[in-house]
Amino acid sequence: MTRQIGRLLLGAALLPVTALTLSAQTPGVRPAGAVRPLTLDDALRLSSGASEAVGIARAGVDRARGQQAQARSEYFPQLNGSVSYTRAIKSQFSALAPDDTTGGDDPPAEDCRRFSPDPTLPISERVDSLESAVECAQNANPFANLGNLPFGRANTWNLGLSLSQNLFTGGRVSAQNRIAAAGRRSAEVELTSQEAQLKLDVTQAYFDAVLSDRLVAIAEAGLGQAERTFENTRLARQVGNTAEFELLRAQVTRDNQRPVVIQRRAQRDVAYLRLKQVLNLPLADSLALVTPLGDSTTAEPPVPAAVAGQAPDTTTETRAAVRRASEAVVVQEGRLGVARAQSLPTVRLTSQFTRFAYPEDGIPSWGDFVSDWNVAVGLQLPLFTGGRLKGDRMVARADLDEARLRLQQTRELAALDARSAQATLDAAAATWEASAGVVEQATRAYDIAEIRFREGISTQTELGDLRLQLQQALANRAQAARDLQVARVRMSLLRDLPLSLSAAPAGATR
């Protein structure tokens, strides 16, 4: 009967994690309520809209597209319209206006008429008219006619249209468009890279949580085995078939197993919290991870559907980091073109069309407006800048050389990273295959040792050693299954993944 109970406990330890097992093992810190079943594919779908890093990358793509639209606008004419109204409170030209505020009934001064001599008049009348004309001319306001001009008018309306068009920029506009296009492509590569990294992070967090559940089950099974050994030893002590020392050793072995269970449960809680944080789920939610770890089967675990159709691509030039470094070279080439264009003349066509109105009552009619239109072609050429343009070209050339060297460095690291990923996958697959027979052998050896101990043929030392070996074999098998799952997903996403932190050069993603 004891042997049958032991086999059942070992069999339960080898079963995949199910929703029922998880709900039964949920520690007291988790709130009671409905358990949410979650597969790996569900987790990958949930994470697509919950990642801040992916959202930042999407914003970067939108920003790059806006910058490209800004650069493209330099090819087209710029047309602006304006409407303005000016009310003059006090004007410096008010002194030139006729003075009509003297009051009284005195008539306004008459304009000086042009003097025309009349030979038929007597000499006295002719002299008198000449003297009157001279006196009027001397007393007249020389600025009286300026009152009809727009200076100092109380109401001024201005309707304007301005147009400007670049005719020649020395290649500056085309270089800026190349920079903007490369920036957009780099932002798109960054978005793809963040999405791939998110899939890998979710996969790691998911299988870390599944592995933590598996390790809890293994630790609890080991505690059950130690408890069973203690009970058998206690019964043997009661009938006088064993010494007190053996009973104490069995009790110590059982008690030493309890902290292991507590630690495994704490690690499981942390792994679940990490998974919820990646998925942006409430930390109080209770999850049941449905996708099996694959450690209890002899066939390889299936690849998640989210990456099942992606063939591994280890080509260096297709890696996301290499593509971004290539776009960085294009950007620096464009900046060198902009620096060179600063030394060339710039030719621009401008035109200004304006209609003015000076109504007396403040609201003009269309007939009150007069037009003013001019067209100009301007050329601007730097003659002396104190070495600034030369310095700009030197900086641009240095940045271009640095970008090209970083591209070469990134290519080398990408090739190394691809080989490292392939080696990791091969090692994980070999470890997983090697661990298959070890679990069966350790289970069989522990069954035999338990029978031998119960019959008095074996000792606690032999049984304890085999128990530890069985737990280690089960843990190694679970860890190997987790590593294989993660390595296969990483290999499927390798094309779009960033380089690992240990291999990425400084400033490679700048």
Determine the structural class based on helices, strands and strand pairing: alpha+beta
Strand content: 5-15%
Roughly how many Å is the radius of gyration? 45 Å
Low-confidence stretches at least 5 residues in length (pLDDT < 50)? 1-32, 100-104, 506-510
Cα distance spanning the termini:
68 Å
Tally of DSSP β-strands: 6
Morphology call:
elongated
Largest sheet: 4 strands, antiparallel
- Overall average residue pLDDT: 82
User: Helicity, in percent?
Assistant: 55-70%
Just give the CATH class of the largest domain. Answer: Mainly Alpha
- The tally of helices reads 10
Short account of what is shown:
The protein is α+β, with helices and mostly antiparallel strands.
Describe, in plain words, how this protein is organized in 3D.
- This protein is an alpha+beta fold and 510 residues long.
- The protein has two domains: 2-75 and 169-345 and 381-492, Up-down Bundle (Outer membrane efflux proteins (OEP)), CATH 1.20.1600.10; 76-86 and 149-168 and 346-380, Outer membrane efflux proteins (OEP) (Single Sheet).
- It has ten helices and six strands.
- The chain has helices at residues 2-14, 19-25, 40-48, 52-72, 123-139, 172-238, 244-279, 320-341, 388-454, 460-492; strands spanning 36-38, 78-87, 155-168, 287-289, 346-357, 370-380.
- Strands 2-3-5-6 form a four-stranded antiparallel beta sheet, with no helix packed on it. Strands 1-4 form a two-stranded parallel ribbon.
- The protein starts with a helix and ends in an 18-residue tail after the last helix.
- The relative contact order is 0.14.
- Residues 1-32, 100-104 and 506-510 have low confidence and may be disordered.
